[in-house]
Amino acid sequence: MGIVGAGPAGIYAADILTKDDTLAASGVPVSIDVLDRLPSPYGLVRYGVAPDHPRIKQIQQALHKVLDKPQVRFIGNVEYGRDLKLEDLRRHYDAVVFATGSDRDRPLDIPGADLPGCHGAADFVAWYDSHPDTPDDWRVEGASVAVIGAGNVAVDVARILAKDADDLLETDITDNVHRGLGAKRVTDVHVFARRGIAQAKFTPMELRELDKQPGVEVVVDPEDFELCEASLAAIEESNQVKTNVKILQNWAIRDLRGEPRRLHLHFLHRPVEILGTDRVTGLRTERMELTGDGGVRGTGELVDHEVQAVYRAIGYLGSPVADLPFDEERGVIPNDGGRVLDLDDQPIPGVYATGWIKRGPVGLIGHTKGDALETVTNLVSDRDSLTPAPEPEPESFLRLLGERGVPFTTWEGWQRLESHEEALGEPHGRKRIKVRSREDMTRIARAE
Q1: Cβ contacts of residue 323 below 8 Å, gap of 6+?
Q2: Which stretches does DSSP call E strand in 54-184?
Q3: Counting CB atoms within 10 angstroms of each CB, which of 36, 96, 114, 173 has the fewest?
Q4: For 183-284, where are the alpha helices, taking DSSP H only?
Q5: CA distance 16 to 376
Q6: Of 120, 138, 131, nearest in space to 183 by CA
Q7: Each residue of 103-112: b (16+ CB within 10 Å) or e?
Q8: What is the mean pLDDT of residues 300-321?
Q9: Which residues fall within 8 angstroms of residue 365, CB to CB, at 6 or more apart?
Q10: Is residue 151 within 8 Å of 122, Cβ to Cβ?
Q11: Interatomic CA distance for residues 125 and 104, integer angstroms
Q12: Sequence-distant (≥ 6) Cβ neighbours of residue 393 within 8 angstroms
């Protein structure tokens, strides 16, 4: 079995496959290769979770146990579509599961969105998480910045923009990220949500963390606290919504402390234009009102906000996957319960998808477990109709990579790289410091 993508979605699929009772009862041996284009595993957990979220990053411990299983083999630094095609994978694996995730920002279709100073959250997150494919430098412009979005990514971006860079020194950030954040002069971060407080998608844990930063206070305008019948119903039906609303209400009525940096939360504001000629100088929003059914409509009232940068956090999209159909609008591989569909909406034998590339970037990391279960259940039910791989021997796939000159990394190599990062952090009293360069990661992992 081959899995393309070594993030949580792909690793959860591998875990479920190794535990499947049907396969165990039938005596079918399970051998799984988890491939990734980066030299390291863990995907979103390593490169999408904010560095000051060590509790979430502890998910790596569970993922580590899966990749440490004898039936599972990690092979990194192998890029599907460049180093390999679908026909190569089908030659070596009875079935292939694509778990390539969502790596692009959803575009913001308003005037001025192409101005310098308007950034995608995915790019910014990848930079402060030291993704090897991002540039070293990121200049955080201005004293006042805007973040558009009402989910956990928007909250993460706002928190990092407001936070003192030195407060991140105990994390695994690299020196260039500390320098870049240390050079910022941000005093005000404005987060804009199109809908109301009861419709916001962030979790209470993420929300509370905004108010736990030294030197930063959260500012909420009481005028934004509009509730309709649907909002009241949502509060009664969901503990998460109830908790979010209570937190926001408490913030709205308290006295300001006079901290040097402020994080403003604006609800019922729809971005309509990013202002500026040569670069971002402001954001124009329209005041919205609730329609009573959970939706919103514009009031026609426009408000201009003076900001020097805008960060879009309105959702991610997956990227097209070579040799497979792709839904450009949703940013996913067309599928039915994880079975990849061709242009005639018929399942492609032996080809599956899981995670965000299957259903879009919805939910938390843990939600990909149920997603993987659905895909694996359908894969296992199809097992009798799968065409056996012509070259299933584990070493034959590694020979193919060697013949093509692919400097692949292994699980043992990752453990070597992990130990190296821990050693880098030790003199500074930190658990680890990431190796940023792909070349350095590969060299260390391969012991070259």
Answers
A1: 81, 85, 86, 87
A2: 72-76, 96-98, 104-105, 118-120, 144-148
A3: 114
A4: 204-209, 229-237, 239-253
A5: 7
A6: 138
A7: bebbebebeb
A8: 96
A9: 8, 44, 45, 49, 56, 59
A10: no
A11: 11
A12: none
pTM over cut 0.85: yes
Among 82, 11, 103, 8, smallest CA distance to 360 is for 103
What type of residue sits at position 351?
V
Which residues, listed in sequence order, are joined to residue 270 by a DSSP beta bridge? 286
204: helix, coil or strand?
Answer: helix
SS3 of 185, please?
coil
The pLDDT score that the predictor gives to residue 24 is: 72
Q: Which of 8, 93, 77 is nearest to 45 (CA)?
A: 8
Give the residue from 370, 348, 371, 343 showing the smallest Cα distance to 358: 371
Q: Round to whole Å and give the CA distance between 266 and 225.
A: 10
Would you say 278 and 116 are in contact if contact means Cβ atoms under 8 Å apart? yes
What percentage of the chain exceeds 90 in pLDDT? Answer: 81
Polymer length in residues for the chain: 448
Q: Please write the tens of the pLDDT for every residue from 200-238.
A: 888 999 999 999 999 999 999 888 888 888 889 999 999
Structural Rg of the chain based on CA atoms = 23
Q: Residue 218's pLDDT is what? A: 96
